[in-house]
Amino acid sequence: MSGFLAGAQHACGIDFREANEFVGTSAGSIVAAHLANGIEPRVPQRSDELAQSDVTDRDIPMAGIDRAFREWVSALYPITRRATAASGTVGALARAALLVGLPAGVRSMEELRNGYAAVLGSRFDPRLRIVAVDRQTGRRVVFGERPGAPGAELADAISASCALPGYFAPVRIAGRQYVDGGVWSATNIDVATVRRGDRILCLTPTAVLTTSRWPALRAVGKAWEVATTLEVAGVRRRGATVTIVGPDARSARALGENLMDTRRLESALAQGFRQGIASQRHTSAG
What burial letters (b/e) apply to 254-274, b meaning 16+ CB within 10 Å? Predict the structure, then answer.
């Protein structure tokens, strides 16, 4: 995500730190918090070389979902929106049951929390929304300076949003336990404040899971894909333009299927940067 934003900024000069609003889920909460705090996206070491690399059709960013399916879901949105709202309580209960049934994660988020507290401080930028899920109720919670949002320091909210169930221990905030916002949705676009004419950029690195060789990972990737499609249909009906970017072929190879593999950080950053530049060249050519 950081690499793509840095590459797109390098190619077209857009300063993503000036966005009207940021919504961050899981690792996206880290990227969003950095931007909201005025920190530029990270640039890879070989940025000059990558900026000169050739661009082919396979390098153009992919939405990760078939256009016909996207249009079909958009057409059905008025019905699916009501169905989703009606089953919200049931869905939350199912998530809560699943979370309680999972083995408790043992890795602490304390090191990550302290690191980002030192870099970012404790105050929320008013434009920033960070999504997590209440482990006891299964409901989505949005941290940030907004009416009804639970009080939390920035580093705590980031840690909660990144606390992958079964891997990391839940993060306790104000007496409640929170886990990764991806338990609800990989993108959570629908929590953004949307006005007619707004432009939304949605980065979905988890789209790489939809082609996984492992059925369980494919199922998770597809579920996130459908959730994102529904969210996008909703904000488009409110008059916004949405661009969804998932990993292209080279970026997908750099990421691999294990998104927790830190050995791939530099290659993922580099290929994201290249893809960000490629996306702007494609836009200019079109």
Answer: bbeeebeeeebeebbbbbbbb
Q: Nearest to residue 164, comparing CAs of 102, 114, 116?
A: 102
Helices 2-12, 265-285: crossing angle, 10 deg rounding: 40
Tens-digit pLDDT string for the chain (286 aa): 999 999 999 999 999 999 999 999 999 999 999 999 999 999 998 766 666 665 544 444 444 445 555 565 556 556 555 555 555 666 777 778 777 777 777 889 999 899 999 999 888 999 999 999 999 989 999 999 887 888 899 999 999 999 988 889 999 999 999 999 998 989 999 999 999 999 999 999 999 988 888 887 888 888 888 889 989 999 999 999 999 999 999 999 999 888 888 899 999 999 999 999 988 775 555 4
Distance, first Cα to last Cα, the chain: 23
At which residue do the structure tokens 């918090």 appear?
33
Question: How far is residue 146 from each of residues 86, 130, 151, 274, measured CA to CA in Å?
Answer: 25, 11, 10, 36
Kindly state the helix (H) or strand (E) to which residue 172 belongs, with its residue range: strand 171-173
What φ, ψ does residue 92 adopt, rounded to 5°?
-65, -40
Residue with tokens 């920035």: 154
Collapsed DSSP state (helix, strand, coil) of residue 248 = coil
DSSP class of residue 40 equals: P
Tokens of 37: 């705090």
Work out the number of other CB atoms within 10 angstroms of the CB of residue 187.
29
